[in-house]
Amino acid sequence: MRMTININGVEHDVPTDPRVSLLDMLREDLHLSGTKKGCDQGACGACTVLADGERILSCMALAVQYAGRSITTIEGLEMDGALHPLQQSFIEHDGFQCGYCTPGQICSALGMTSELLRGVPSQVTADLSSALISMTRDEVCERMSGNLCRCGAYNGIVAAILDAHREPAP
Question: Is there a domain that residue 170 lies in?
């Protein structure tokens, strides 16, 4: 039986070795180098990708676990050759310095936004019964706390996320 994973809209065979991590499949087999290998222990967030729109740490995921699912990496965010609005916001707000953590930060921010829209509370959510959670600076900081930036570009990262998801003026 053939098992595949949809990665950035393209079907790929799952590696025959069930011990291959999703991160290693992305980087070594598919040459998608945007997803970074940081700690390889699930502690830094550099390897964050989206699985069916939810953020996961690809270094802690076996590729075989995601057979039949849809994975989006930083390379899959472009739209008709243009940057995703969040990528553009990272540039405008200087949300990166060395850029190593940036792909994971962006994928994590997109997953975090999905969590907010689904009403998933965080440690700092004031009203746990509310289905509508505002994207405040505190919510962003808490929800992005699993993504480390060794350069310390956190202020730019948070500003980029808040600006990219700001409600348009009426």
Answer: no
At which of 77, 109, 139 does a domain end?
A: 77
- Give the helix/strand (H/E) hosting 72: strand 70-72
**Helix (H), strand (E) at residue 54:** strand 54-57
CB neighbourhood size of 75 (10 A) = 15
pLDDT at 55 over 80: yes
pLDDT (0 to 100) of residue 146:
95
Q: What is the rounded distance in angstroms from the CA atom of residue 167 to the CA atom of residue 153?
A: 24
Residue 169 counted as domain residue: no
Domain residues for the domain of 11 are: 4-77
Nearest CA to 58 out of 76, 77, 74, 37 is that of 37
The pLDDT tens digits for 139-165 are: 999 999 999 999 999 999 999 999 998
Tell me the whole-structure pTM to 2 decimals: 0.94
- Cβ-based burial of 105 (10 A; exposed 0-12, middle 13-18, buried ≥19): buried
